[in-house]
Design a protein that fits this description.
The chain has one domain. The protein is built from three helices and no strands. The protein starts with a helix and ends with a helix.
Length: 169
């Protein structure tokens, strides 16, 4: 043990300091490699999440475009049907106008050809023709209005249904 006493005390302190510092350096170096591995894993996870978000957004945009195309197509179809229905309604209105003219002509003709048998009989006959003609005109006008409204609502309902069916596919 003689040689241990030959080494000065400050050398022992220096050796202990070097050993502690070396151990700390090894420990910190190992921590750095663990941190770099964790950072690398976090970076990879962020890339995966970003890619997943990008794919989901692209898929969402594609679905939105598909739905909008279905809605636009059905809307255009409904507009065309509505234009056809309006054309048919105009033709029906024209025919109804002709019918009203014929009723007016018949009423006027009835008045002109009425015999002067009795004032009361003529008035009763005239009033019946006038009342029936007026009722026919009014019912024809109402039927035309109701047909227009029914056709518009039918076209709108069919368009709505086809848009819904197109969107839920």
């Amino acid at each position: 043990m003689n040689w241990l006493a030959a080494v000065p005390a400050w050398c022992w302190w220096l050796i202990a300091l070097v050993l502690v510092a070396g151990t700390q350096e090894i420990r910190v170096g190992a921590g750095k490699s663990e941190a770099s591995v964790a950072w690398s894993e976090l970076s990879d996870f962020r890339l995966q999440v970003a890619e997943r978000d990008r794919r989901a957004a692209a898929q969402s945009r594609t679905e939105e475009r598909r739905r909008q195309a279905v809605a636009d197509e059905e809307g255009e179809s409904a507009r065309q049907e509505l234009e056809l229905a309006q054309g048919r309604a105009a033709a029906a209105e024209s025919a109804a106008g002709g019918l009203r003219g014929e009723i007016k002509r018949l009423r006027d003709g009835h008045r002109a050809t009425c015999d002067t048998i009795a004032t009361q009989q003529r008035q009763a006959g005239e009033s019946a023709v006038v009342v029936l003609g007026g009722l026919l005109e009014e019912s024809d006008r109402m039927a035309g209005d109701l047909a227009k409204a029914l056709e518009r609502s039918r076209i709108a309902g069919l368009a709505c249904e086809s848009i819904y069916n197109g969107l839920t596919k």
